[in-house]
Design a protein that fits this description.
By secondary structure, the protein is of the alpha/beta class. It has 20 helices and eleven strands. About 60% of the residues lie in helices and about 10% in strands.
Length: about 550
Amino acid sequence: MVIDETPVEALALAAAPLRAAAAEAERVAGGPVRDVRLVVPADWGPRRRTWMRQAAHRAGLAQPRLVEAPVAVAEHLLATGLQLPVGAFIVVCDIGAGAEVTVLRRGPAGFEVLSTLADSAAGGSAVDLALAAALTVVRSAPSDGVGDWAVAESVRAAKETLGVHPAVTVPLAGQAPVIASRAMLVDAALPVIRRVAELVGETIAAAELSPSDLAGIYCVGGSAHLPHLDTVVAERTGITPTVVSEPQLVAARGAADAGSANAGTVAVEVPVPPVRRAVAIAVPGFASLALIWQCLLTAEEHNVLVYRSVRLNWGEFTMAAVFALLACLAAGTVLGSVIAARNPTPSTRTEGGRVSIGILAAASLGAAIAGLYAVVTSQYFGEPVGPFLRWALWPITPILLMAVAMAMVAARQWRAPHGGWSALLAAPTGSIVTAALGMGLIQYSLTADRWPDRLLWIDISGRVGGLLLGVGLVMALVAPLMFRLILGAPVAVITAAIVSNQAAGILGVSYAVAVAMWWAARLWTRIVRPAATSPVTARRSAGAGPSGGGG
């Protein structure tokens, strides 16, 4: 049946050039071709990719590795010396017969396609048609396939020649040769170039970025040398694009380098957390154990006839749960970063996936430990577990939500934070120590024996504890030293003034909210909207091109 034969014939046609290329490669290499890599557009879905693999199989090739064209171009840029830090964004504008514009992000394990748009009418074929229409005249004789093919080849050759010469003679089938000028090429190419510039802007917007986020725009493909392409794209984006040397060969060379050990002069690894950061995990862990121990030992039990009650420092209990969660998150993030660094897999998004799993597992463990604190404490005093669960789980909910948000960002690998995820998710150790010591002193002042000769010392201890807790709260809220000095004094005075059994719970919950705000601020300033520009962006703004050195 014709319906069944059509895809088979198309497959055979696609396999023919692959078979010829394989035969030539075997002749040059002197042996069979074992590593096959085929460049495909970034917007191809599973169906087209499967079809391409079938064509390679029909041609007698080994199972091919499909490399997306913009990824291959980016790999070639790294291999030829472009300095592009992890987390940077670039645009690859591939202008061949059509146009494909792609936004990529460099991750520790390779390049990730964030958005891609294609237009078959925005490339060299459209320019050829427009230039042919300007050069040819209406003929009375009907056109034949051979004549049309000859005209198309002549126009294509003229287009390439006009890229370096002001004018060229174009032989045309069925009529006298004509003179083509650079001005004619500009008129034919201008609508296509404008459409390419529109695609660039639309693709950047689709990636939820702005031109200021980019480290550069790079043009490749057989039609990358179209006149005024750089000017029109620069007018649209504010960035002058760079036409890569030998643009028609870049994708093939990048595909050959993709995944190799020397792709780029410096291999980028996931930052391994330093030993001091791993040791710092113990700080919130020990703080949590110390506070829950003091909370259990100093709780006051009251028995009045048949009624029994327990007065607990709910603020101290809450902060013990907070510190347990912080210890688990620090340990999980460090462990995920170490695993990602020690077991790199270039074909997968190793760092983001493993770090996100570590964050989610650590968040679950931290919540479980907080719940365990509630259950054990309620059983220890023989009280209903409900109030204990409320004071243990509700205050840490904002921190858990921020941890989930961090895990989602890490899994997507939107931006890799400077120093790695373990550095971003490390709560300030100074704040933990100061707040834990402050709450410990507050609890001492509330439960110590009221001997007459110790009243002044006990009261001073409580006020100092309030001061320390206020300072620790401010240290969790803001990072710059100047802001800490400005906010620390009034907040510390307020927390010292309100030290009491009733206010202790409020102070504990306030500290939990401050930790969540600390992470929210870091997520925004270091991932979503980082203030500092990357070195590549700074060089681009200064008008410098890609410099030598490793990626």
